[in-house]
UniProtKB/TrEMBL annotation:
Domain Peptidase A1: 31-372
PROSITE patterns on file: PEPTIDASE_A1
Annotated source species: Perkinsus chesapeaki (Clam parasite)
Protein name: Peptidase A1 domain-containing protein
Organism lineage: Eukaryota, Sar, Alveolata, Perkinsozoa, Perkinsea
InterPro entries: PEPTIDASE_A1 (IPR033121), Peptidase_aspartic_dom_sf (IPR021109)
Signal sequence annotation: none
Database matches in Gene3D superfamilies: Acid Proteases (2.40.70.10)
Length: 401
């Protein structure tokens, strides 16, 4: 293990003279996963701006438990130790443990490997090598995580800064809309877009947490014509009867959190579009995820919030169009990337729908977030509706606006 640390020291002391095109310091996004290359091996890691840790599944440990070749069954791959970065004693070490809000957990040991970033190879990058993973609630297969939040010196972003690969502790998430065939990107240490053309929002670090938060207003809704909706009718003012909420802008969360009152408001708007229907327009499953009936699909409103930049700050309007919060449709129902929180919480999340809608640059040094002035306009496209095993009704195509 000494050689990689020596190489890392030399890399930090004698950095490259010129970095050339900053585009090469980026990672490809495959849906919500960052594609990285360690010691020549490609793995996919869940991109998580809400946590600082960097964890990769150990192929040696996984195949010892599940049999040779079993890593091929993991869609996101495994990392196998190499001669230059051996880990013969990996299973003899006492592992550390980290856990998440959804009760997923990793048991891991520290390891170092060479990271390939564009045409640059960075030796001595330290991460947690997962020797055992658990997912008691979701039942998911093991998958590593690439945390981008604040943390100790060994976080992914901090190491790149220490090794002078990047000039600032920052990242940009440019997530592709679901309707796009393009891949998204994470730009490391810079914003690809001119910051002067972006809207700036102050972030706050909570003393008990390792990430940055802001505040949002309560939900208001818009129709396809851009008019504000209240119970299916238009009006010129917005409802803000609830106090601003602490919100985490989190790439590791698939959904947007709504309060139960906001969900009822959402249902009222859908119901108003078909007042004679005896069927509920929307419902919540056992996990809190929102589903809508097929007839209500075309009436989905645009979600509206204001980011509130401090008690006297100027509000920044956020708009999440249906094409950004629709997850998938079956033959009779559609699942949305909306999660209803039925109890009071100190923190709510803005997940994937937000990143699909907005180009987002976050500077961890200045505690600033920069957003595109307007949400992206998803290109009209068609998506095949999925089959449910218990429902083999006629499948047809739906249009996402």
């Amino acid at each position: 293990m000494a050689i990689p640390y020596i190489l890392a020291y030399l890399f930090a002391v004698y950095p490259l003279k010129s970095y050339g095109n900053l585009d090469r310091f980026s990672l490809e996004l495959d849906y919500d996963s960052a594609v990285i290359v360690l010691d020549g091996q490609t793995v996919k890691l869940t991109l998580d701006s809400g946590s600082p840790g960097w964890y990769v599944m150990s192929g040696d440990a996984y195949e010892k438990k599940h049999g040779k070749g079993s890593c091929k069954g993991l869609a996101d791959g495994c990392y196998f130790c190499t001669k230059s970065a051996p880990c013969d004693d990996i299973l003899d070490k006492k592992p550390k443990t980290t856990s998440y809000y959804d009760e997923d957990c990793f048991h891991y040991v520290d390891h170092v490997a060479a990271l390939s970033l564009g045409d640059l190879t960075i030796p001595g990058m330290k991460f947690g090598l997962i020797v055992e993973a658990c997912s008691p609630v979701r039942g998911e297969a093991p998958k590593g995580v690439l945390g981008l939040s604040l943390g100790e010196e060994d976080t992914f972003i901090n190491q790149l800064r220490t090794f002078r690969v990047i000039n600032e502790t920052s990242y940009t998430v440019d997530m592709a809309p679901l309707t796009s065939q393009k891949k998204g990107s994470v730009f490391l240490g810079h914003s690809k877009e001119d910051v002067a053309e972006l809207n700036r929002i102050n972030l706050t670090r909570r003393p008990d947490l390792e990430y940055l938060t802001t505040h949002r207003s309560s939900l208001y809704l818009f129709g396809h014509d851009g008019n504000s909706l209240i119970h299916g009718h238009t009006r010129d003012i917005h409802l803000h009867e609830e106090d601003p909420m602490n919100v985490l802008i989190d790439t590791g969360t698939t959904s947007i959190d709504l309060t139960i009152n906001e969900y009822y408001r959402f249902c009222d708007v859908l119901k108003a579009k078909s007042p004679t229907s005896t069927e509920e327009a929307a419902f919540i499953d056992e996990r809190g995820a929102v589903w809508v009936q097929l007839w209500a699909f075309r009436h989905l409103p645009t979600l509206g919030f204001d980011f509130v930049d401090g008690p006297n700050g100027f509000p920044f309007p956020v708009r999440i169009r249906p094409g950004d919060y629709l997850r998938t449709c079956y033959s009779t129902q559609c699942m949305l990337d909306i999660l209803v929180v039925q109890e009071d919480r100190p923190l709510y999340c803005m997940g994937h729908p937000f990143f699909r809608a907005y180009y987002t640059y976050i500077n961890l040094e200045t505690m600033m977030m920069y957003l595109s002035m307007e949400p992206r306009k998803p290109a009209p496209s068609t998506r095949q509706r999925r089959k449910r095993p218990q429902d083999m009704a006629l499948i047809w195509k739906v249009r996402i606006w």
